[in-house]
């Protein structure tokens, strides 16, 4: 197969980790007979430096024409960089929001998985983890507070700012369907998270999710309030299989869940539209402090490339091969600094990429 | 001193735990020469049963005329109770929102503290807790998504629901001042939590908090994005002293933080207005499953009564006495079921109240 991939190295450690992911993809291509072609576009701080905006129309068009997008990370240290002394819609993160909306990437999948080998890095006690932690957050990504009307106005000398949280039935239905489809391939358990005791949008959310659930009689559906979910994730994370939630709650809960794995450097993500098209990126940020030092953990990006093969190219076997190679590298005791523990072999970004590629 | 306290026993375990808190207050009265007079009002499910609404105007007026309110808990099992098959504004929790707004209780203080004696109950590993965990969340309680305009409408056969998040400078300023005042009596460190990379209301929040901070040169101010905060609470909770945040973020983060103490049955809260008036309640819910069985932990309510003495009645010495009595009971090895561990003495709700009162 011939695949046109747009890469967005972005800022900070982005270029280094994307490079390693492409290395692994190329090895997959070699072994399984595919050609991956890469077209690079700029987004985030590097695009601001070059064009004055975090995402140009041309870059967005190039991404639209590709088969899939592989993103590193965008942004710098907020409040500490030339990129942030400008209007919000000109900052690096605005590029991320613009590409999500521009490519209609409404379904954000964020797996959180605790590797046995990394149990030491997990902040929770063993008895709280129980039989293991393997969940996926299905976050709505193009609606809610992120994209609602907002404005700041002055009345009688007092500034007042407003953001709007809106969802319609169709937006809720399509993300719910994604979550149930994914649950069918997993442990068949969806926990839908909302704040239905307060929000109208959550009450509509609950109603539509209930309707969608009727088409999946095998899947067990539970509703959980967002505050309770934030609590349960710490107390009893093993109970979660698929968590379905709206944009802002998903942002908060996925970061919380990621920490339970002890290593945000291991977590991949996919952002999908209604077709097979998607954007794939690590769950972590651009880590400007360690950029260019061969210290970054490329595994989250490598695993994001595996998600790309699975969701955009139907290459399940090849995706399995990448995931198995990552597992093997961990079993063999190799660790980047962020996941290092006593007795393991410490390696840099590039060597980690080599080690994974060698195991494909 | 003569204090007129309105009690709201509420639903589930509410009546039992309020009874124990009053027992402890009465002992304080005896020892320190105060008179606490109680007037009971109905709120939540019990008010629905009696009057068809979760809070009557008369009940609210009675609360307004009191010196302080002591609340147990309201509500039942959502989706599992006659109280929930009605419009949202007629459900038990609506009473809680109505009294918060009606009494103008804009400042919700939620301490989260890990007792040495309960370290076993904490889900985090010792190395992640570090030198201890003792923080307080200062949550704005009468604005934001909770009280913004909301509506559900149909257009072309598609339902669409909207909630609104609004804050003005004055609302932000008064809660920020509370947080900084509290920080001055603690470790002088405020972390203000927002989502300023997305929300207009968060950008205004940040601006006003910065302005208020100028009046507190001794207090260190940091800003943290809400997703990062959800992560940091799990990874490194010891870094937090005072967390200042808006209503919905405060709801989520305070539940998460409470779990880090391992025992939501220990956590008190205060909701204050601009004067010394306040409503005091445990952070936990009405736990209908264990209601009436002498199993509930009354400590959160007892500690809420201590907060009442401190914030509404300026009785610092008396509040200290209650807190010391609770600490002593734990040191003496007494535990209700929720905080029980091997080797301790298990006691019920009433005995726990007696034990604390006896140590005043
Ligand atoms: C950078 C930011 C706008 C973004 C978000 O809030 O969605 C990030 O936190 C994420 O989760 O991808
Ligand atoms: C019961 C509910 C409306 C309430 C809230 O969301 O504020 C509760 O979760 C709380 O935190 O006091």
Automatic annotation (TrEMBL), chains A, B:
Pathway: Amino-acid biosynthesis; L-leucine biosynthesis; L-leucine from 3-methyl-2-oxobutanoate: step 3/4. Its main location: cytoplasm. The keyword Ligase does not apply. SMART domains: Iso_dh. GO terms for molecular function: 3-isopropylmalate dehydrogenase activity. Pfam families: Iso_dh. Its EC number is 1.1.1.85. This is 3-isopropylmalate dehydrogenase. It comes from Ventrimonas faecis. The gene is leuB.
């Amino acid at each position: 197969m011939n695949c046109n991939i747009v890469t967005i190295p972005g800022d900070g450690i982005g270029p280094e980790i994307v490079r390693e992911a492409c290395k692994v993809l190329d090895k997959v291509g070699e072994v399984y007979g595919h050609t991956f072609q890469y077209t690079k576009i700029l987004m985030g701080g590097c695009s601001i430096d070059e064009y004055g905006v975090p995402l140009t129309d041309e870059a967005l068009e190039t991404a639209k024409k590709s088969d899939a997008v592989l993103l590193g990370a965008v942004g710098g240290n907020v409040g500490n960089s030339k990129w942030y002394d400008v209007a919000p819609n000109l900052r690096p993160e605005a590029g991320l929001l613009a590409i999500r909306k521009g490519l209609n990437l409404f379904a954000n999948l964020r797996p959180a998985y605790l590797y046995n080998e990394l149990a030491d890095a997990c902040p929770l006690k063993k008895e709280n983890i129980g039989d293991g932690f393997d969940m996926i957050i299905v976050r709505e990504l193009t609606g809610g507070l992120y994209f609602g009307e907002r404005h700041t106005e002055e009345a009688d000398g007092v500034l007042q700012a407003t953001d709007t949280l809106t969802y319609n039935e169709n937006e809720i239905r399509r993300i719910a369907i994604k979550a149930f489809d994914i649950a069918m391939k997993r442990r068949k358990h969806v926990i839908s998270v909302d704040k239905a005791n307060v929000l109208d949008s959550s009450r509509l959310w609950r109603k539509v999710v209930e309707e969608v659930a009727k088409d999946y009689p095998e899947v067990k559906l539970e509703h959980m309030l967002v505050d309770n979910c934030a609590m349960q994730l710490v107390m009893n994370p093993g109970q979660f299989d698929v968590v379905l939630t709206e944009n802002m709650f998903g942002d908060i809960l996925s970061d919380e869940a990621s920490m339970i794995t002890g290593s945000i450097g291991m977590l991949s993500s996919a952002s999908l539209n209604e077709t097979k098209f998607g954007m794939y990126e690590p769950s972590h940020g651009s880590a400007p402090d360690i950029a260019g030092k061969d210290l970054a953990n490329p595994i989250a990006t490598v695993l994001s490339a595996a998600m790309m093969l699975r969701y955009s190219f139907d290459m399940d076997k090849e995706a399995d091969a990448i995931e198995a190679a990552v597992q093997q590298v961990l079993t063999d005791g190799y660790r980047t600094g962020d996941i290092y523990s006593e007795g393991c072999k410490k390696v840099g970004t590039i060597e980690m990429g080599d080690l994974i590629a060698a195991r494909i």
